[in-house]
Amino acid sequence: MTISTENGRQGGQPAMHTPPIVSPEEWQAAWKQMLVKEKAMLRARDALAAERRRMPWVAVDKSYAFEGPEGTVSLLDLFAGRRQLIVYRAFFEPGVHGWPDHGCIGCSFGADQVAHLAHLNARDTTLVYASRAPQADIARLRAQMGWDMPWYTLTDSFDKDFGVDEWHGHNAFIRDGERIFRTYLINSRGDEAMGTTWSYLDMTALGRQELWEESPDGYPQSKPYKWWNWHDSYVPGAAPDPEWIAVSDAGEAAFREQ
Question: Model's pTM, two decimal places?
Fold first, then answer.
């Protein structure tokens, strides 16, 4: 079927060759066929995340320094006391398109997608951004664009050592006490999917830390849904809200019946 819209004619655009127009029953049948493929893709994504949790780790023995709002900090400091760390190398610095008024358009697009960090932090994981711009410029840009993720200034070869000196990317780390290990890297088009709490957790060594996940023995895991909370209501170590447990249990039961 071909549809030519008024806007398309006015703009000189060719007519759209659209899919067929069908009845609600035919649409429902077509959707169910697509749903089979979507569920297969979802299971494949879960399996890929499970493989990531079995990736080997590499020790980070070199010392790195970053400039933050309070002065010089180490890579260990970036964890903010949490067990896992994700560092996104954003391009905001002299020589990058947009400087000094804006960061890289692509990196800024990604920054606009970052979910509220309280949920990620509740899974013992910290996200930070890092660029070569001075802290004064970073503070100005964050305020201008409404971003609140921690954002540090690179001072050494961190970006080159972790493959993000010429292109953006997310590096994941985990710590055992003061020992730090690199666990994964997502860059290039892989960054398109980043921004949700789930996309960040799925790239980490510990994953979402939920019971349904296929993780190595001994990994931290808890029931899905139960650890969720309003972003202003997380209390470390607190038991889940019993009313929310009842609501989520009912939802899960209804879903299984379908």
Answer: 0.93
